[in-house]
Fold this protein.
Amino acid sequence: SKQMSANKTIEEGLEFIPKFDDNGLIPAIAQDAKTGQILMAAFMNRAALDLTIQTGYATYFSRSRQKLWKKGEESGHFQKVEQILVDCDQDCLILKVAVDAGQCHTGYQSCFYRALKKDSSKELKFIAEKVYDPKKVYKK
């Protein structure tokens, strides 16, 4: 069937056909290429993805500000993209990136610096230390 062959193209073909959602966005997970640490989860629209591919540096789409942002444009903590992975459905990306210290705007290396406490449904605990002072980086 036509649907079957379309799925096979998406799932096993070698053509990059990213599937954006109804808002024109695709989730993108940034992962430290060296350590494997997950740094952040964000979204890209077509323009952000194209810029990322063209420049070699991660650009995302901010849903709150409704605009493109090049990671590091304010903080200096850029993400140099070494590889872009796509999942089986082509509706989620992983960006393997080369980074320096402090990828989260809060001062942590990763945006995932808290974890749900074991046997709790709503209590969090810190699992990391800050690596920089955000007040010095973001002059706000």
